[in-house]
Write a structure and sequence with these properties.
The protein has helices at 2-19, 23-27, 37-47, 80-94, 130-135, 148-152, 183-190, 202-207, 237-243, 255-259; strands at residues 51-52, 59-60, 106-110, 117-120, 123-126, 143-146, 159-162, 169-171, 177-179, 198-200, 213-218, 220-228, 231-235, 250-254. With 269 residues, the protein is of the alpha+beta class. Among the domains are: 2-60, no CATH class; 88-152, no CATH class; 212-269. A 4-stranded mixed β-sheet has the order 5-4-3-6. Strands 9-8-7-10 form a 4-stranded mixed β-sheet.
Length: 269
């Protein structure tokens, strides 16, 4: 009796192990369920004419089929990529950078360069140093990578003001700042708008040297002038050489802007 019982328990297992090479055939059959080990064994035994009891797992009618109980999960175990991107999206939204005026901006860089830009008001503004970038509280994780072609679509932001101060300054391509002496008129001359002005920190503003030497670009006049709050002063070539003025210290201005400065005595030598 005992031997018969043991044989009845061992035989199905042996048959199941013997029939496992038939797994590829099972997988091609309709209704095959491979998510549970018991289903594999039972359906293998079904193939050789021995069924399983769906309740106890004992040999029984081949009609027994494993029915898993649905479990509600708070994540998708088969798609880690989608979960990862979802989490990143949440973090990104939670840490969306803003400028000092409180509006959201985009921080971008081109893979081939270490320069970081902020995209604000449809313009691009380069951070003059990594220290200035960090001083705003920004992090490198906020920086998105874009192509040079995409970056080139944005014009350079050239009008700035310091937070807490209404004075507007022109930021030259060479990284120099000079005050806009008559905002309304100068804006009209250059086709600028009030919304083109971006707000920067005092620390960034102090980073830029003052633009005190200019020349007229339209119509072109190569004469160099020194400008200040009191007016403009013509510098002779001898005076330019004596002061050691470099070409990158001289910025172009329109005739209309230059005419707004009061004419002072020239500097001869």
């Amino acid at each position: 009796m005992i031997k018969t019982l043991k044989l009845s328990l061992i035989l199905p297992t042996v048959l199941a192990l013997t029939a496992l090479p038939l797994y590829p055939i099972l997988a091609s059959q309709d209704g095959f369920v491979a998510r549970d080990p018991q289903a594999v064994i039972c359906q293998t035994l079904d193939l050789v004419g021995i069924g399983c009891d769906s309740q106890s797992g004992n040999t029984a009618s081949p009609s027994g089929t494993y029915q898993p109980t649905p479990v509600r999960l708070n994540f998708d175990i088969f798609n880690s990529a989608s979960n990862s991107s979802g989490n990143n999206s949440t973090i990104k939204n939670a840490t969306a950078p803003k400028d000092l005026s409180g509006q959201k901006i985009n921080l971008v860089s081109v893979d081939s360069s270490e320069e970081i830009y902020s995209l604000v008001n449809g313009q691009k503004h380069i951070f003059p140093s990594r220290a200035i970038f960090y001083d705003y509280g920004y992090k490198l994780e906020m920086v998105q990578s874009i192509s040079q072609y995409q970056l080139d679509k944005y014009p350079r932001a050239h009008l700035v003001k310091v937070k807490g101060d209404s004075k507007v300054y022109y930021l030259t391509e060479g990284g120099l700042v000079r005050p806009v002496i008559n905002t309304k008129k100068i804006f009209e001359f250059y086709g600028d708008r009030a919304e083109d002005v971006i707000t920067i920190s005092r620390k960034e503003f102090n980073f830029y040297p003052t633009n005190q030497y200019v020349y007229q670009f339209s119509p072109l006049n190569r004469d160099v002038f020194q400008i200040s709050g009191s007016g403009k002063r013509y510098l002779t070539p001898m005076a330019v050489a004596r002061l050691g003025i470099r070409s990158d210290q001289v910025a172009p201005v329109s005739k209309a802007e230059l005419d707004y400065y009061k004419t002072l005595a020239p500097l001869i030598d």
